[in-house]
Design goal:
Helices cover about 65% and strands about 0% of the residues. With about 190 residues, the chain is an all-alpha fold. It has a single domain, classed as Up-down Bundle (Ferritin).
């Protein structure tokens, strides 16, 4: 169900010819997300997760991989710094969620770390759709970035509520990064 919401949201955004620049163009160049969760500082006992919280962690890892893979692919295609910088940040996001998966003894939900390869058929199709749109023009590629970050923000906000404190800390740090990424994509769109 959660995956279907993501796919529906992105499909609606892809169908739109223009995406609103929610944050305006404030000249912010913050490509790097800061304050990623310092894994070595949390020595507290872990909470017991509900099934939904386990699924949320698994899903967020896959969503961060989707973002990273799209940005790597579009970065190679368009040779734009914004994609290169943000894909590095998405790798850090993946590492932060992977730490939580390991902490709660949950399997990392991908068998292959190859770019653009997903075991989940829906995510594979979504990746293909995003890349197809992003290949059309640099404007379309930047709009794909906006779409991904807006969906990521919505998912992180929803999944932070009621989560154990260690997961909340990680997700709030990822949220700050996603807001920075969104501003960066919108800033680049404003320059076209």
């Amino acid at each position: 169900m959660k995956k279907q919401i993501l796919i529906t949201t992105v499909a609606i955004a892809l169908a739109s010819t223009t995406l609103s620049a929610r944050w305006g163009h404030h000249g912010h160049h913050g490509y790097h997300s800061r304050g990623h969760y310092n894994q070595s500082t949390n020595q507290t006992a872990q909470a017991t997760l509900t099934q939904e919280q386990k699924e949320n962690l698994t899903f967020m890892y896959q969503e961060e991989k989707l973002a990273r893979d799209v940005y790597i692919t579009l970065g190679k295609l368009w040779n734009q710094r914004v994609f290169t910088n943000i894909q590095r940040s998405e790798q850090r996001h993946m590492n932060s969620v992977k730490y939580l998966l390991n902490r709660y003894n949950l399997p990392v939900p991908v068998l292959s770390d190859d770019i653009g390869v997903f075991e989940n058929e829906e995510l594979q199709e979504l990746y293909n759709q995003l890349i197809a749109k992003g290949k059309s023009s640099l404007k379309d590629a930047l709009e794909v970035g906006v779409t991904i970050e807006e969906v990521d923000i919505a998912d992180l906000e929803a999944k932070t509520e009621g989560a154990p404190s260690d997961i909340q800390r990680v997700f709030k740090n990822l949220l700050r990064g996603s807001y920075n990424h969104l501003r960066a994509f919108n800033t680049n769109l404003g320059r076209l």
